[in-house]
Amino acid sequence: MDYFNYQNNELFAEAVAVQDIVYQFGSPCYIYSRATLERHWRAFDGAFGAIPHLVCYAVKANSNLGVLNVLARLGSGFDIVSLGEMERVLAAGGDAKKIVFSGVGKREDEILAALKAGIRCFNIEVSGELDRINNLAGQLGVVAPVSFRVNPDVDAKTHPYISTGLKENKFGIDIDTAIAEYRRAAALPYIKVVGIDCHIGSQLTETRPFLDALDKLLELVATLREEGIHLHHLDLGGGLGICYKDEQPPQPAQYIQAVLERLGQHSYEILLEPGRAIVGNAGILVTQVEYLKPTANKNFAIVDAAMNDLLRPSLYGAWQEIIPVSPHDDAPLVHWDIVGPVCETGDFLGKERLLKLAVGDLLAVRSAGAYGFSMSSNYNSRPRVAEVMVDGTQCHLVRARETLAQLWAGESLLP
Ligand SMILES: Cc1ncc(COP(=O)(O)O)c(C=O)c1O
Ligand SMILES: N[C@@H](CCCC[NH3+])C(=O)O
User: Fold this and answer.
1) I want to staple 364 with a disulfide (CB 3.0 to 4.6 A). Which of 80, 257, 284, 338 is the partner?
2) Which residues form the Orn/DAP/Arg decarboxylase 2 N-terminal domain (predicted)?
């Protein structure tokens, strides 16, 4: 069941008309569905049955406190990549003991704060990070739980900008040198080796690359075991894709089933770091048509949202469905490029979309819950938009639209 549906020719988010949300909170705005978020998280969590596991939602996909709070209440773990994300998780009621810390460039202050908070594990991505964590843990007199994010050199078959598990990518430790790092780690006084991690890319639509990466991980784990290095968990990262247009990614349960089959009898706790698959289709971006500009070559619909609000189309040429909030027959059906007001030719939300449009119409960009608001910016001095969480018949403003004064808060004139 989809929680963004038409009822009597009006788009609804759960039991609330999208149009009413815009009357209340203005346009543009992101709208999230709590029921969808919960259903997606449970699809991962439930697929493990009695097998020890932890679903660590990847905070970067959408770090709104309301979103994090919904997941924290379900008992979710969290995958973070910065101190900012850690503080968000804690502010949203997340449990530090369920946080894994990924990222290629962890600063000293970030590591110290995470050690003090008592997070579950550091996913080490570069050799020097191991020594840095060991030193800082020593200063605090604690032992740091670590795992290595290995780069298995597997082609995730996704957009090159979001592929992370190939040798030429900056992420993780080359799987061929990881054994030496594990040996080093096992001998350090303030380090406890607890796991292994990999994340090969995002928006994967096949199970195969995940299994290829898992095979490589298992080989390494077997070698480690022979050397007396025993791991508690395997973290297989995130990356499961969603349907934006006609992709047919495996369902979380199918993917997890395939992983468990490949693992066979084992004694590891399994960690996953899904982001997009939990929040992507739990959100839409609503925008209003400001002007229609038919030209000799193209028809432009200029809307009030732009690339600064939703970057994916501009950055990756990503296709996201755009639908009318209140479909009507008062205009001809023609192809429109849906563009924003930002001064960049690459500022578009969609191209060549067949729609009946009039000035003032509201449009919904679907599948916008992941990497939507979290990648937004103030480019062109545009205040960031409001975010609303729908919960049945209720709406909660989970982030107020930025004010103009907030745009320059912290800036100053010269003395
Ligand atoms: C380390 C890590 N884990 C998890 C994720 C989440 O990925 P996705 O949103 O594709 O599930 C990412 C982003 O790709 C990541 O870099
Ligand atoms: N931002 C990307 C995904 C990057 C994932 C980060 N590890 C997207 O929108 O598809």
Assistant:
1) 284
2) 35-280
Give φ, ψ of 16 to 5 degrees. -120, 135
Q: Name the residue of 199, 206, 271 to mutate for ligand 1: max ligand atoms within 8 A of Cβ.
A: 199
Distance CA 199, CA 215 (A): 13
**What confidence category does residue 165 fall into, taking pLDDT thresholds of 50, 70 and 90?**
low
Give 215-237 pLDDT, tens digit per residue: 999 999 999 999 999 999 999 99
121 an active-site residue? Answer: no
* Atom of ligand 2 minimally distant from the CA of 201: 7
CB of 314 sitting under 6 A from ligand 2 = no
| One-character DSSP codes across 19-39 | HHHHHHH-SSEEEEEHHHHHH
Domains belonging to the chain, first-starting first, are 4-31+280-407 (2.40.37.10), 103-272 (3.20.20.10)
Q: How far is the CA of 57 from the centre of ligand 1 (A)?
A: 9
Q: CA–CA separation, 214 vs 393, rounded Å?
A: 43
Taking the centre of ligand 2 as the mean of its atom positions, its distance from the CA of residue 276, in whole angstroms, is 8
Torsions phi, psi for 174 (to 5 deg): -45, 130
CB of 374 closer than 6 angstroms to any ligand 1 atom: no
Render pLDDT for 112-125 as a digit per residue (tens, 0 to 9): 999 999 999 999 99
Q: What is the pLDDT of residues 103-112, one digit of tens each?
A: 999 999 999 9
0.95 surpassed by pTM: yes
Please report which confidence band the pLDDT of residue 161 belongs to, taking 50, 70 and 90 as the band edges. Answer: low
Query: 187-205 in b/e burial notation, b at 16+ Cβ within 10 A?
Result: ebebbebbbbbbbbbbbbb
Residue 271 phi, psi dihedral angles, 5° rounding: -110, 145
